[in-house]
Fold each of these.
Amino acid sequence: MTVRTRYAPSPTGFLHIGGAWMAFFNWLFARSSHGAFVLRVEDTDRARSTLEYERAILEDFRWLGITWDEGPDVGGPHGPYRQTERMHSYRAAADELLARGAAYHCFCTAGELDAERRRAEAAKRPYRYSGRCRSLTADQRAAFQREGRRPTIRLRLHDHHETIVVDDLVRGRVEFDPEHLDDYIIVRSDGSPLYNFANVVDDHAMAITHVIRGIEHLSNTPKQWVMYRALGWTPPEVAHLANILGADKKKLSKRTGDTAVRDYRREGFLPEALLNFFALMAWYPEENRELYTVQELVERFRIKDLGKASPVFDLDKLTWMNGVYMRQFLDHSPDRVVEACLPSLGEAGLLDGTPTPAQREYIGRVVEVLGERIKVGRDIVTYGDFFFTEPVVLEPDAARRYLNSPEIAALLAALRDRVAAVPSLDPPAAESLVRGLAEEKGMSAREIVHPVRVALTGKTVGPGLFELMALLGPDRAARRLAAAADHARRGGSPAS
RNA sequence: GCCCCCAUCGUCUAGGCCGGCCCAGGACACCGGUCUUUCAAGCCGGUAACGCGGGUUCGAAUCCCGCUGGGGGCACCA
């Protein structure tokens, strides 16, 4: 049997970390068993669904490297892949259910049902549909029809008395007493299908064999199982995963951090790191190891080894992991690091639009100088903004501490003259200029390095001083040293 | 209210099916030290957990029961 999995996003927003995580395991399972991964768009909620969101979600998946074999854009043998385009099959399945007597028309209005529900709540009884429309006569139906009532369609669970067993691939056998289920609505009065119905019909039509989904669906599963049976279909294998929690142990929300995949992309996280991290939130392939390539994950994945508890999204660990990948890319494909830094540069106003080849080259050199300091793309701004600003912005504390005396001013001015006198600078040249000056003045390198660093970068922390001087070049370095000398001469107070 | 799921360091987890190798291992974070012009990275070291209560057993993180805590479901939402 060929494994076929799916992820079914609703295009009502950007791709959420939780959704991407769930999709990832479905994808991983399909790939590890040489099966197919299907993307199905659940857009029956027409008020909130848009094509823009659909496109954005697809783009985020593509960026992550989660590829689909069938979907709304590429089509496939079981299409179409948007629920709004599949209304005919829901209609057909509903008719089939009606014909078999496994479903019936319900003429109760929303208001009437609401009243029923409220009564149950007031009596502290669990609400179950009363079943008033379960066995209407033709006359009664006609009467309701004449009143102008438009019926919904309900699945008949009433006759089902056996225990419903869900064999969850990660949780094992879970039993449900059918007495707690009621005849639930599968088609609205306007003829559109509800989630539990469309989902079953589509999974069957698309020959889905395995579904990995959120635990919130575990309680829905028995309802779906009854429908599969009524239709004479075989349900897929299922595995339910607990949801990702935020640092506050509550459901991941904007309050505790970014929730959209796109936010992480913008901040300069790498898809490789994200995928590796995703895996670890529910599954450790081997003991004592946390770094895996996607290929290794695909080779090792076993659905049974998935964890049952709710993982907390640990941003610190993701950041560490991203740093590991950044350092690897620094060696063999530094362009990937540059790529990850671009959005942050744009957002910080340090880069306008798409970089020219020359700008890209320069950014590449900045990345090289910043080196392993860049754990996330945005670090290029926190550590290296001065490579892109003119004049440099002095951090007040740093200037007060290191650019505060006439002696410093003289020192910086002296270095400025030496820097201005050379045609070009490479790191060794920069080093000998600085160390040479220190020696002549009888100072330690340390004493001169700090003020110079602040003069050139505005900060007390950053990349190696000589590398940074070389990249800045004699002109810019000289200008900054002169400005800083002025600043120091005034005793560290800002220019008026 | 009813039903379902879950429970090892602050966090992610290994181990639990086949009880002794676990006075619980790794990683992130944190704290020291080292390297060093700063920061980061690296290296060395450290703090830190089996939710509670009963069983079963010579022996329980591991098996059983109860409790507590957390999460989810009970829609003409998905």
Note: The radius of gyration of chain A is 32 Å.
Amino acid sequence: MLETTTKCEQCHNASCIIRINALGEEMKAFLATKHNIQCKRGQQFILEGAPVHGLYFVYKGKAKVVKTGFQGKEQIVRLAKDGEIIGHRGFGSREAYQISAVALEDSTLCYFKNDALKQMLLSFPKLTYDFMLFYAEELNLSENKVRKFAQMTVREKVIDSILYMYRKFGQDGDILNIQLSRKELADLAGTTDEQVTRTITSLKNENLIRTQGKQLGVVNIELLRREVLEHNFFLNS
DNA sequence: GCATTAATTGGTC
DNA sequence: GACCAATTAATGC
């Protein structure tokens, strides 16, 4: 395995919670306990039900966080890009992970073991505070997600998912910087791959998005936004 | 090039 | 709007 040991002090992920707090000498000993893991595309690095052993960060790459339902039905809880935390729900408890995590492309991960992280959190209030803010935001997002699944139509859910990918990963030229299969998009939107295919065909015919092979691209961001915004407005009122 | 998997399309409930 | 089936496209080996 490639032991590329990344230095937090020089990390390109300016928004990483560890990176933000990586200043100062006292932190160095803790940062030295970090491990780097190389993950191939499709490789699973957190298994739902397995005992919690630590916390991951995406150093470089993309990953999906998945919850498995009854008949092998999967729900993509979120997508993660450079600098983002994965596995934080399990932290603190001695229980099992409630989610699985799979690399969507060849990725490099940072990994802290439970004990090391615990010591860090006890030692650095600013770090702990930033973690708390992060947890609060996560809770907010998942509450919104509940609403989405309960009340949006399939078309709206697919649009919302495409906008989510657009927000998070951006778009070079006219193609999104992330590629999901129809099945994965369905798992993200909370529908079936057939419905996703049909919705994509419609959106393409309406010139709201475009496709290039399996790649997706946003053409008319304003109209797409409007469709889900109207919905949100309705829900908020 | 062949075999497997993914995407699309049409139909039923 | 989910599930199933048939066809076609894409991908891996």
Note: The helical segments of chain A are 17-20, 28-31, 114-123, 125-151, 154-169, 182-189, 193-205, 221-236.
